[in-house]
Structures are given as structure tokens and as C-alpha cells.
Amino acid sequence: SAVISQKPSRDICQRGTSLTIQCQVDSQVTMMFWYRQQPGQSLTLIATANQGSEATYESGFVIDKFPISRPNLTFSTLTVSNMSPEDSSIYLCSVKQGRVTEAFFGQGTRLTVV
Amino acid sequence: DQQVKQNSPSLSVQEGRISILNCDYTNSMFDYFLWYKKYPAEGPTFLISISSIKDKNEDGRFTVFLNKSAKHLSLHIVPSQPGDSAVYFCAASARGFGNEKLTFGTGTRLTIIP
Questions:
Q1: pLDDT tens-digit readout, B43-76
Q2: By the 8 A CB rule, do A76 and A49 touch?
Q3: Nearest CB neighbour to A102, from listed B49, B103, B106
């Protein structure tokens, strides 16, 4: 299984500011995903980030709000832009490797917007 | 539109007994199902999965059953141990249709009583 490191693990941010979350994997992976878990809710996919192409966003999520970078096969960033209290969530990076069927998750970034 | 549902938000089971967690889905295109366990302040950890071509998959204390006609799956843990106390998420994907993204249920908090 892949070892996934997310930074920061938690942060408290002022509304109107932006936060960039980093996801580092210890091996090359083809598919990386960014999820959000709002308080008391399920995990919701924000976007799929594949190296060498634009991220694919799910319904309800837009690139201006959640820009994603995927510069290589081991690293990705998610930026939460112009934050509001409604963005307070846990943000999770997830990866899939080759023919392995299950996805692995980082430990998450707990974001609180005040 | 909640395509994957876990109708029991919480479940308490005596140590040593069987824990049964349930999950229902509505999307007929789902053909691969997974269970994840999540501890506080950690990312979800993969537990066990099942393809739609099977109706049972077993791994140690964990067994997943799939009833395609009822669009229902369940996770059995036997015997239950205190370390099994966590939130369990059911997830589904339509891999056979080229869609690797996971759709998660809302989770069931399992508490094992010593």
C-alpha cells in the first residue's frame, strides 16, 4: 500500500484567505483524488487529479474555488480559495495504484474557517 | 441524491459478539464495493472489498456479503474486538464502466463494549 503524507494536518484560517494542502506519496501513482468530509457528513469527491492533464471536477465544485496541481506522479496540491466558514471540513487526499482495486487515503487536513 | 446509504448512524456490540453493518445502494452501475474504517484524526483505512460477480468475500474476521437483487451489502465482524470501535464507511464504484471514483455512504459508528 502507498504511504500518503498530507500537510498541514490541521489549520485555522480567516475567512477570505486561501489555504494550500499538499499530498505527497511514497511511490508513483496514476490516479489521485481529493475528497471533502463536512461535519457529520460522508466523504464527497471534489476532483480527480491525473498527471499531465487538467483535474476533473465533480458537480458542485469548480476550479476557481478549488484549484488543483499535479506536477508529477507523487505529488498534488489542493487550494481552498476565498474561504468561508462553510469550507470548514476535513480534506482528504486519496490514491490508486495500477491494478490495485482499493484506494488509499492520507490522514486528512482538518480545516476550520473563522 | 444519496446513492449509497448507511441507515444506522451508530451500533453498539458486546465484545466477542458479531457486528453487522449494513449498506444499501441505488445505482445499478455500481459493480465494486468497499468497506473502510476510520479512526478520529486519521484517514479512512481499507478493510475489505467485493466485486459484483461475487456474493461473499472473507478476510479473517471480516466478511462482506453482497445481495445484488436487493442492492444491499453487509459487513460482518466476528468476533468483535475493542479495537474495532471506529466509523465504518461503505463505498461503491462503477469500475466496469471505467469510473474509478468512490461514492461513500454516511458511515456507521461502531462501539464495541468490553
A1: 999 999 999 999 999 999 999 999 999 999 999 9
A2: yes
A3: B49
> Amino acid identity, residue B6?
Q
Give tens-digit pLDDT for B5-26. Answer: 999 999 999 999 999 999 999 9
| B79 touches B30 (CB < 8 A) | no
- Which of B45, B49, B101 lies at the smallest CB-CB distance from A101? B49
Which residues partner with A50 through β-bridges? A31
Tell me which amino acid residue B74 is. S
Q: Which residues pair with B113 in a beta bridge?
A: B14
Q: Which of A6, A36, A42, A59 to mutate to test the interface with B (most CBs of B within 10 A)?
A: A42
Residue A9: all three cell numbers together = 494536518
pLDDT tens-digit series, residues A12-50: 999 999 999 999 999 998 889 999 999 888 999 999 998
